Recover the amino acids of this structure.
């Protein structure tokens, strides 16, 4: 059987069309790697129970984690915040870590992981590192830039090299690292682009968007293939 992969969705659309939604690239990437995606909208009264019967979890990108989660003030650039989504994803990830469930945390997902572990976020990258590296073109368009992988990291071993170009779409990033986390990828301006959790080879957390480049032979496809293989192995 194909491994069952839960994929978190964006918050409720509050612009006159109430619905849960998710860019289709996440679903397509999971399917292309051999997984069976199941959408997990926020708001369930018992989020951790949603993991029952799942073989893996994808924390999707999206709007900002509310800065109250890491004891910071709102920034003028903050957008897309949703307490319902924050509560759901923090509970899902906490339960997934406890179960050692294969997890792929993408962009916002990597930030959720860092905050859950007691770290914080850089509220707006241009204020912190300038604009020499374009981490996004706009809220509607992604950028591309190179990242450097830490030699000896699990991610460097996965790719078989120490640098790659990625699809980037974020204005926040990991700041102070949470407990047990190690930064294992960096943009040219020093921004952390991926983290690994000590003793957790079943967890992959990247700031970039591998689902946007998941065609055969691409770096994104390699990451999804690896993750779905981990999920398949967890069925044993």
């Amino acid at each position: 059987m194909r491994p069952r992969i839960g994929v978190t969705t964006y918050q409720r659309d509050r612009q006159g069309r109430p619905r849960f939604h998710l860019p289709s690239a996440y679903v397509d990437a999971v399917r292309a790697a051999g997984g069976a995606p199941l959408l997990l909208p926020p708001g369930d009264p018992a989020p951790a129970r949603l993991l029952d019967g799942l073989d893996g979890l994808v924390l999707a990108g999206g709007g900002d984690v509310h800065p109250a989660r890491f004891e910071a003030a709102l920034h003028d650039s903050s957008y897309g915040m949703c307490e319902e989504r924050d509560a759901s994803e923090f509970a899902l990830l906490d339960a997934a870590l406890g179960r050692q469930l294969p997890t792929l945390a993408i962009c916002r997902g990597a930030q959720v992981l860092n905050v859950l572990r007691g770290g914080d976020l850089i509220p707006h990258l241009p204020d912190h590192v300038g604009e020499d590296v374009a981490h996004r073109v706009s809220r509607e368009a992604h950028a591309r830039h190179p990242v450097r992988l830490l030699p000896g990291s699990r991610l460097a071993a996965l790719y078989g090299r120490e640098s790659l170009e990625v699809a980037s779409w974020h204005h926040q990033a990991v700041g102070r690292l949470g407990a047990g986390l190690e930064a294992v990828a960096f943009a040219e301006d020093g921004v952390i682009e991926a983290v690994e959790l000590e003793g957790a080879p079943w967890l992959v957390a990247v700031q970039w968007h591998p689902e946007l480049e998941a065609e055969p032979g691409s770096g994104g496809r390699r990451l999804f293939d690896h993750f779905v293989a981990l999920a398949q192995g967890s069925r044993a």
The CA atoms of residues 47 and 92 lie 6 Å apart. The chain is about 25% helix and 20% strand. The chain has a mean pLDDT of 93. The first strand starts at residue 4 and ends at 8.
